[in-house]
Amino acid sequence: MNQPPPFGLMAEFTEADAMTAAVRAARAAGWRRMEAYSPFPVPEAAEAMGVRAAPVGLIAIGAAAVGAALSAGAAWYISVHLYPVNVGGRPPNAWPAFLPTTYLVAVLWACAAALIGMLALNGLPRLNHPAFFARGFHRASEDRFFLFLSAEDPLFDAMASARFLRGLAPLRVSEVRAS
Q1: How far apart are the first and last CA of the chain?
Q2: Which regions of the chain does DSSP assign to beta strands (E)?
Q3: How confident is the model at residue 155 (pLDDT cuts 50, 70, 90)?
Q4: pLDDT at 179
Q5: CA 108, chain centre distance (Å)
Q6: 76: which residues sit within 8 A by CB, 6+ positions away?
Q7: Does the keyword Transmembrane helix apply (predicted)?
Q8: Is the four-CA dihedral 151, 156, 162, 164 of positive or negative sign?
């Protein structure tokens, strides 16, 4: 029976500090394709992995500006050119009347773009990931910390990588197979 190729190796730790030390050791050894999983945020591990903030805020601001411009432009065009109505002697292009809808559309576009941008940048929705089936991985949301070394990294060699991870004193090292 043919087994699928290895997707990577997973090391399990009982403490966040041990996982963070393992991340630092892996980065120092030259690993670049790795992931860390923990039941709560571990900023030191994220910093050691070189994770930086995603540009979701910039995406939201850009979408808000586009939405506001479209909303204000549409309101102005409709009020001035398509249906000019003199109400109480105000001019057709009374821009303060356009502000509430402009603001609401900008917020709507920013929220939608932030959601879509976050999903796209995180590669979601991904309902199935081989790491989910690693031995003991269900405890990543409870009390365990995991370091995953990807087989896509140029340094990956199944035996040498397993030896490297065992040298970091994890609870266990398990192979993750592509499904």
Answers
A1: 14
A2: 6-13, 34-37, 145-150, 172-177
A3: very high
A4: 67
A5: 21
A6: 93, 95, 98
A7: yes
A8: negative
Distance (Å, whole) CA 9 – CA 175: 5
Inter-axis angle of helices 99-121 and 56-77, to 10 degrees? 150
User: Which residues, 6+ apart, have CB-to-CB distance to 126 below 8 Å?
Assistant: none
| Alpha-carbon distances, residue 152 vs 5, 116, 119, 166 (angstroms) | 11, 27, 23, 20
Burial of 49 (0-12, 13-18, 19+ CB in 10 A): buried
Per the structure block, which two tokens stand in for 12? 């399990």
Sketch the domain layout of the chain as residue ranges: 6-48+130-177, 56-121
Helix (H), strand (E) at residue 112 = helix 99-121
Q: Which residues contact 163 (CB under 8 A, 6 or more apart)?
A: none
Beta carbons within 10 angstroms of residue 68's beta carbon: 21
pTM (two decimals)? 0.74
Q: How far is 57 from 69, CA to CA, in rounded Å?
A: 18
